[in-house]
Amino acid sequence: MHGVMSVLYPKSVQQGLETKPRPNPGEENVIIIDGEKVHLVYGYPAADAANAWSKLIMAKFEDSVFNPERPADWYFQNNPADPYIIFMPQTKKFKSDSCYLKYTEAQSPSTPPTFEIVDIGC
User: Fold this and answer.
1) Closest Cα partner for 92 from 114, 76, 107, 80?
2) Pairwise CA distance, residues 40 & 83, whole Å
3) Which of 10, 61, 93, 109 registers the highest number of CB atoms within 10 A of its CB?
4) Are 122 and 32 in contact (CB under 8 A)?
């Protein structure tokens, strides 16, 4: 994820997207990568599996709340209203399993995204 961001952020700066916050409903803050719209917040990937991370990482993602039985490389949980997303491995599909990576999207042009690893249940 860090590697993806180290390539994506400079491209977003070149396009003047590093100062654009999370868009309001009906608006877009995107960059085109390999013909795909990737949603951004302050030039970094949004906390959104379908519209950001699944287009940036070559892996299969499934929503662990709605599709826990579908095979995937990673499972996620996120509420579009929240500025973060939780990613879980195949064997620990729920936040309550206490084995996940939490990605919190950028909060301002000077506050980049953060990562938090919770591994007490791994």
Assistant:
1) 76
2) 12
3) 93
4) no
Q: Tell me: the pLDDT tens digits for 12-23?
A: 999 999 999 998
The predicted model scores a pTM of 0.90
With CA atoms as reference, report the closest residue to 1 among 44, 38, 33: 44
Question: Where do the domains of the chain lie?
Answer: 2-118
The DSSP letter of residue 114 is E
Residue that has been written with the tokens 């990605």 in this structure: 103
In the chain, the N- to C-terminal Cα span, in Å, equals 20
Measured CA to CA, the distance from residue 95 to residue 119 in angstroms comes to 11
Buried b (16+ CB within 10 A) or exposed e, 56-68: bbeeebbbbeeee
- Chain-centroid distance of CA 109 in Å reads 17
Q: Are 97 and 68 in contact (CB under 8 A)?
A: no
| CA distance linking residue 7 with residue 89, whole number of Å | 25
Alpha carbon distance 114, 122 (integer Å): 21
